[in-house]
Design goal:
The chain is of the alpha/beta class. Helix content is about 35%, strand content about 20%. The chain contains 17 helices and 20 strands. A hairpin with a 2-residue loop joins strand 14 (about 345-355) and strand 15 (about 360-365). The protein is globular.
Length: about 500
């Protein structure tokens, strides 16, 4: 295996030259990609409807093609799923990434073309390894196996010919990987694609605990559940006794900060490394480029053309849209993408903040529908996760999950924010935890601070401690177990919070 490790490490590092090119010439790369996308799709039904043959520059593109939400572009996708082709993209689309998101009950089905698989999702995976190997040339990762915690896939019942499939984006990727990759990853595909998560975690634990696992890829929440089960089955003190050669966790989907202390407890090794990715159903967008950074390099040559909506414009009927060349460091933007799978000027629902424009680096700051702004405080997910992390650090707490919503004025009661936090390890003082949470929000968000001034508009947050397993049970009852389903961190309504409080009060999961 040492020879294989050396060869793969060398191959991965060769890609670094191409990455450096788009870092140096970002606008040239994006302009060329824009022209290629429009030219390729000009004879699709969408291209003919919106006059792609007359689109010669970005200004015309923005004038002739509106911004699309999922609901607005879904009629094309539904026809595509029924078997029609050449609608949004010229090549046949046989795979769809299923994403329920965190705000809508209905499922979203994102087309995944051959080009999107090869030039975006697969390329992103290779680049992740390339960047890692470039920073850590002494890696022994390829001497063992990579553990991937993914979703499930099934035959598309909407297609009468049953010639297409859908599933979590991780399942779509795993189902299409070259055959040889099965020898360097674990568990086997039949286990990895199981759809019943409780049985899946048990089976994955039983199979993988006897492998030489050197890397893990997955969502932090489900990875914690798996590691805890393996430690229990093995009777081990921590995961280093099970996998002594484990060296890296490639993670994404949710912010890692609130979970870092739990992983350090489960994997107490100074040699353990963590790398963040931004791989969504709609595409692979970003990779952590520096080992100790908390931002990600925006990947510009994956068949995705980027546009951005400034945060104050997001909910306007005709929002202002800007290009990559106009973004500013520290500002929040909603992402618009046009892709090699036929998503055109599509608002994916995520917001990002730029940390650098040379090269372009981003951090995920939240969702366009996930925020609290009931009183003009404009608290976004990034604020909440940073405040939670600070409160945990100062009180010795560790969390599994949390959610928050506004509490409105009522009688003599002041308005406030109400939180439900499920702790892995409870804080030394819930009162102190609440004070640090509040103080951090006030420090990093001037609008929140203004509303909290002398408690005139907002009172101190209310924090409920939930028993372990509360959020798992809530997601299970909603049919939302799975890698692509995440607990909504923030909501401007009390729909989620009240539902969880009701579950707690009516069950054994008492506060």
């Amino acid at each position: 295996m040492a020879i294989i490790n050396s060869i793969l490490t060398w191959v991965m590092k060769k890609r670094m030259h191409q990455i450096e090119l788009f870092m140096k010439y970002p606008h040239d790369v994006q302009d060329e990609l824009f022209k290629k996308l429009v030219t390729t799709a000009r004879n699709t039904e969408f291209g003919r409807t919106y006059g792609f043959t007359d689109v010669h520059n970005v200004e015309q593109f923005r004038k002739m093609i509106p911004v699309f939400s999922y609901e607005e572009i879904s009629p094309y996708i539904e026809r595509n799923m029924a078997g029609e082709q050449n609608l949004l993209w010229p090549s046949d689309v046989k795979w769809f990434a299923k994403s329920s998101g965190t705000t809508n009950a209905r499922s979203k089905f994102i087309p995944v073309s051959y080009e999107a698989l090869e030039d975006c999702h697969f390329k992103g995976g290779k680049d992740l390894l390339s960047i890692y190997c470039n920073h850590f040339p002494d890696t022994k990762m390829f001497d063992g196996k990579g553990l991937t915690i993914g979703g499930s896939q099934q035959v598309n019942q909407h297609d009468s010919n049953s010639e297409s499939f859908y599933g979590d984006v991780s399942a779509v990727i795993m189902s299409n990987l070259p055959y040889w990759t099965r020898f360097v990853r674990t568990p086997t595909l039949d286990i990895a694609l199981m759809d019943e998560w409780e049985s899946k975690i048990q089976k994955m634990a039983e199979v993988t605990m006897n492998e030489n696992v050197t890397s893990i890829s997955g969502v932090p929440t489900w990875t914690i559940v798996l590691l805890q089960r393996i430690i229990e089955l093995k009777g081990a003190k921590d995961i280093t006794e099970v996998w002594p050669n484990l060296e890296v966790f490639f993670h994404g989907a949710v912010a890692f900060g609130p979970y870092r202390s739990i992983f350090q407890k489960l994997i107490p090794s100074d040699k353990m490394r963590y790398m963040e990715t931004y791989n969504a159903s709609e595409g692979f967008f970003g990779i952590q480029f520096e080992p100790d950074s908390d931002d990600m390099l925006l990947m510009l040559d994956y068949g995705i053309y980027y546009e951005f909506i400034p945060y104050p414009e997001i909910h306007k009927e005709n929002p202002k849209v800007i290009g990559l060349d106009e973004v500013k460091v520290g500002e929040h933007y909603a992402i618009l993408i046009s892709t090699n799978a036929g998503l055109w000027r599509y608002m994916i629902g995520d917001t990002v903040v730029f940390t650098s424009t040379d090269p372009y680096k981003i951090k995920i700051s939240g969702r366009t529908k996930h925020f609290i702004n009931a009183f003009g405080e404009e608290v976004v997910v990034e604020n909440a996760e940073r405040a939670i992390s600070e409160a945990c650090e100062q009180t010795g707490a560790q969390i599994n999950n949390f959610t928050a919503a506004p509490k409105y004025f009522g009688g003599e009661e002041k308005a406030s924010h109400e939180w439900i936090v499920e702790f892995e390890q409870e804080p030394s003082s819930l009162e102190e935890f609440t004070k640090v949470l509040d103080a951090t929000l006030r420090r990093i968000n001037s609008d929140y601070d203004a509303k909290r001034h002398k408690s005139l508009a907002l009172g101190l947050p209310i924090v409920h401690m939930a028993q372990p397993g509360t959020f798992y049970e809530w997601m299970k009852r909603r049919g939302k177990l799975g890698g692509q389903n995440k607990v909504p961190r923030l909501s401007n309504t009390r729909e989620y919070l009240d539902d969880i409080l009701k579950l707690i009060s009516n069950s054994e999961l008492s506060l």
